[in-house]
Amino acid sequence: MSLPGTHDRKTTTRHIFPNCAVEIIHADKSDDGYVEEFGNNTHHVVGAKIACNGTYRSTWRFMGPISPVHKPCDILSYIPPNVPWGTVAEGRGKAAGVSCHFSHEYFRAVTGIDDDRSISHLETCRDIHGVTIKQGLRRIYSEIIRPDFASDALVNSFAGIIALEMARYFKRAAAKRRRTHSHTMEQQDLLRIRDYIYECSEERLLISDIAAYLGCSERHIHQTFRVSFGITPHDFIKAVKIRKSVDLLNEGVLSIKQIAHNVGFSRQSSFSAAFRATTGATPAETRRLGRTDFSCLHIGNDAVRAAIMGR
After folding, report:
1. Three-state secondary-structure class, residue 262
2. Which of 309, 310, 248 is nearest to 279 (CA)?
3. CA-CA-CA-CA torsion sign (263, 267, 272, 273)
4. CA 252, 255, 256: angle at the middle one, nearest 5?
5. What share of the chain is helix, strand, coil (3-state, %, to 5)?
6. Tell me, which fold does domain 9-178 have in CATH?
7. Where are the domains of the chain?
8. Residues 101-135: tens digit of each pLDDT
9. Cβ(160)–Cβ(102) under 8 Å?
10. Residues 216-243: pLDDT tens digits?
11. Domain 187-309 sits in which CATH superfamily?
12. Portion of the chain with pLDDT greater than 90, in percent
């Protein structure tokens, strides 16, 4: 670690909403030294780094034996109440962050999560994942920095969604601890993964995102897809995105280029090639014929095809 440094400027503005309080943090640092901060919240805090430039880097950890190493702040953070924490900022640049502070009563009512400071719970808190949670935090930041019509209502709604997604996350984590090592996957889990990919089709989803969503390891995802369905998880992600693109094609609103972007392809040519390999037709042919029959999908077994067709 370098020598101690200081922030040239660091501001925290607090905004109060019915479901939570939101803190917006902006930091500006021009030296390479490190800055340490420590705290202990009275609320449940969910936050993330929104933007950063230069060599500025910040990390956090729970204080004590639960977290011997720091964790990058651009990974979603959740800090329960009455748990000491510490942060370290190093390097030069500017950074922005946002955090939602939920009261104990509200968070418990929505999530069912009580004042749990067990080692297993805090270990789970250290590794929060969730595309929806991070998207919600980004929208909250945007609505507060650039307010528009009904921004307060939107912020409050997104805060509620974040709390619900936290409840889902911890339920999946609990299921992971109960999960056997049979390397098989139920159809219900496949449908949950399908819906998750469908709703996040613009994102560059990683296997780690799906593993976190389902509450298991990446290795488990790879093994269960191979054993249960005869395909890779990457193939399934691509197939679900192609399935969504068919819905968009049949709506007739977006161009094929726009649809390619909406399902995560940077180039229309790559999208068209993947589309034809999966469905046996081109996007233009599918749009022209209004095709909705997926019985000839060239992927996986009957369970996979049923999951994709059933959306």
Report:
1. helix
2. 309
3. negative
4. 105
5. 45, 20, 35
6. Jelly Rolls (2.60.120)
7. 9-178, 187-309
8. 999 999 999 998 877 776 667 777 876 877 889 99
9. no
10. 788 888 888 887 788 889 988 988 898 8
11. Homeodomain-like (1.10.10.60)
12. 37
